[in-house]
Design goal:
By secondary structure, the protein is mainly α. The protein has one domain (6-69). The chain is 47% helix and 4% strand. It has helices at 6-17, 23-30, 34-44, 47-58; strands at residues 83-84, 87-88. Strands 1-2 form a two-stranded antiparallel ribbon. Strand 1 (83-84) and strand 2 form a beta hairpin. The chain is globular, with a radius of gyration of 14 Å. It starts with 5 loop residues before the first helix and ends with a strand.
Length: 91
Protein backbone atom coordinates (compact mmCIF):
# COMPACT_ATOMS: atom_id res chain seq x y z
CA UNK A 1 0.00 0.00 0.00
CA UNK A 2 1.50 3.29 -1.07
CA UNK A 3 1.59 6.41 1.08
CA UNK A 4 -1.98 7.67 1.48
CA UNK A 5 -3.02 11.10 2.69
CA UNK A 6 -5.47 11.44 5.58
CA UNK A 7 -8.06 12.60 3.03
CA UNK A 8 -7.52 9.40 1.00
CA UNK A 9 -7.81 7.23 4.12
CA UNK A 10 -11.04 8.99 5.11
CA UNK A 11 -12.46 8.46 1.62
CA UNK A 12 -11.47 4.76 1.59
CA UNK A 13 -13.21 4.27 4.94
CA UNK A 14 -16.29 6.06 3.63
CA UNK A 15 -16.34 3.93 0.48
CA UNK A 16 -15.81 0.73 2.48
CA UNK A 17 -18.86 1.54 4.64
CA UNK A 18 -21.07 2.19 1.59
CA UNK A 19 -23.12 -0.89 0.72
CA UNK A 20 -23.04 -0.41 -3.04
CA UNK A 21 -19.35 0.43 -3.43
CA UNK A 22 -17.41 -2.74 -4.24
CA UNK A 23 -13.83 -3.32 -3.13
CA UNK A 24 -12.86 -3.26 -6.80
CA UNK A 25 -13.89 0.42 -6.99
CA UNK A 26 -11.60 1.22 -4.05
CA UNK A 27 -8.77 -0.67 -5.71
CA UNK A 28 -9.35 1.08 -9.03
CA UNK A 29 -9.41 4.55 -7.46
CA UNK A 30 -6.70 4.20 -4.80
CA UNK A 31 -4.72 1.07 -5.72
CA UNK A 32 -5.64 -0.53 -2.38
CA UNK A 33 -6.64 -4.21 -2.54
CA UNK A 34 -9.47 -5.75 -0.52
CA UNK A 35 -6.98 -7.25 1.94
CA UNK A 36 -5.23 -3.90 2.34
CA UNK A 37 -8.60 -2.17 2.81
CA UNK A 38 -9.42 -4.60 5.61
CA UNK A 39 -6.02 -3.92 7.23
CA UNK A 40 -6.59 -0.17 6.92
CA UNK A 41 -10.06 -0.45 8.47
CA UNK A 42 -8.67 -2.57 11.34
CA UNK A 43 -5.92 0.00 11.97
CA UNK A 44 -8.09 3.14 11.71
CA UNK A 45 -11.25 2.05 13.51
CA UNK A 46 -12.15 1.09 17.06
CA UNK A 47 -12.21 -2.69 17.53
CA UNK A 48 -15.98 -2.79 18.04
CA UNK A 49 -16.60 -0.66 14.92
CA UNK A 50 -14.29 -2.88 12.88
CA UNK A 51 -16.12 -6.04 14.01
CA UNK A 52 -19.48 -4.46 13.13
CA UNK A 53 -18.15 -3.42 9.70
CA UNK A 54 -16.70 -6.90 8.97
CA UNK A 55 -19.96 -8.57 9.89
CA UNK A 56 -21.85 -6.14 7.66
CA UNK A 57 -19.47 -6.54 4.68
CA UNK A 58 -19.43 -10.34 4.81
CA UNK A 59 -23.19 -10.47 4.32
CA UNK A 60 -23.23 -8.05 1.34
CA UNK A 61 -23.11 -9.34 -2.22
CA UNK A 62 -22.78 -5.77 -3.46
CA UNK A 63 -19.27 -5.40 -2.00
CA UNK A 64 -17.83 -7.76 -4.62
CA UNK A 65 -18.36 -7.21 -8.35
CA UNK A 66 -18.32 -10.95 -9.11
CA UNK A 67 -21.14 -11.61 -6.63
CA UNK A 68 -23.41 -8.87 -7.99
CA UNK A 69 -26.52 -9.56 -9.98
CA UNK A 70 -25.92 -9.25 -13.72
CA UNK A 71 -26.76 -5.86 -15.12
CA UNK A 72 -25.60 -3.78 -12.16
CA UNK A 73 -22.63 -1.81 -13.39
CA UNK A 74 -22.83 1.30 -11.24
CA UNK A 75 -21.50 2.08 -7.79
CA UNK A 76 -24.32 4.25 -6.49
CA UNK A 77 -28.07 4.08 -6.28
CA UNK A 78 -29.96 5.58 -9.21
CA UNK A 79 -31.98 7.62 -6.70
CA UNK A 80 -28.88 9.22 -5.17
CA UNK A 81 -28.74 12.93 -5.88
CA UNK A 82 -25.64 14.79 -6.94
CA UNK A 83 -23.59 16.14 -4.07
CA UNK A 84 -22.00 19.50 -4.70
CA UNK A 85 -19.85 21.59 -2.39
CA UNK A 86 -20.81 19.38 0.58
CA UNK A 87 -24.52 20.11 0.11
CA UNK A 88 -27.08 17.61 -1.07
CA UNK A 89 -29.50 18.87 -3.73
CA UNK A 90 -33.06 19.26 -2.54
CA UNK A 91 -35.94 17.52 -4.27
Amino acid sequence: MEKLTQHDIDRIIEMAWEDRTPFEAIEHQFGVSEADTIKLMRREMKASSFRMWRQRVQSRNTKHVKKRVDGIDRFKCTLQRAISMNKISKR
